[in-house]
Amino acid sequence: MTTTTRRKVGIAGAIVGAASAGVAAAALAKRYAVGRIRLRPDPEASEPFGELGGTQATLTTSDGVALHVELDGPDDAPLTIVFCHGYCLNLESWHYQRRDLRENHRMVLWDQRSHGRSQRAEAEDSTIDRLGEDLAEVIAEFVPGPCVLVGHSMGGMTIMALADRHPELFGDKIRGVALMATSAGKLAELTLGLPAMLSKAVHKIAPSTISMLGRRGELIDKTRHAGSDIAFLMTRYMGFGDSRNVSPTLVDFAESMIRQTPTEVFADFYPALMNHDKLSALHVLDPVPTAILVGDKDWLTPPDHGRAIAAALPRAQFTEVPDTSHLIQLERPGVVNDALRDLIKQVEV
Q1: pTM above 0.85, yes or no
Q2: What residues does each domain of the chain span?
Q3: Could you give the CA distance from residue 238 to residue 234 in angstroms, rounded to a whole number?
């Protein structure tokens, strides 16, 4: 080996060594950061997340998909609250609302198709309009009297799709609506806090990238390790506005719901969310009391989207919650539950 060759090998080895050391140092720093977070006092450490059982039922939809449904609260309550969860979550995301309202109110909670314990649907049947039809069938099967609909994120879009396709239900059957951290459209224009040019580039490559991820979903799911530090930090940062003070147990709970959603499901529903546009259907909600809640630090459905819904529904109660991000019903359960109680009072008058 010549002197020049040895020099090149030495330089290459130094570069590789430095890079490896950098990666190792970053991994160590990340592990140290997560470790410090987990050592903080955790008031939610004993909270029974995922343990609030109810009466379980299955609804087979008109296109043959088995939906998991849970009924809770007193059967003879005059009003039913129907909870519609968000993208890559499941019915357990309503933990605090279920815990605090179940004593006095009848509840219907369901896993949207391909989420939670509901059956996987084909990609072509993973649309917001189909979710609206699913909700109509859930109401027909499990809601004997009047009801209030509560939707978070994609669940709010599900309610808008129901309004678009079944406007006759709003007013008599559906007496009130709560929309949380959701959007009536234009999600493809989100900046996610990025500079304009970078955001445009991300949106340009996202559809093909996510489609590719979907095709390799099984392989990717095998690498989504339980409780990974990266997943923990991302959920903490993106899902919670006051991330420094959020309970590590709560972050783990939210991350576990996201992780349990297959990558293929994430990919199947992504185009539906990006193409969602139900602004013209919002007038259907106008005759019923409506509450709109959004976190002021929500990157996924920013406050402007909540304000656009409120502008279309001038009689609605709009609340922008400070220091709060996308998982508003988990991060600020007191604010959300108070808003739901106020909405129920309006309906029951």
Answers
A1: no
A2: 55-188+267-348
A3: 6
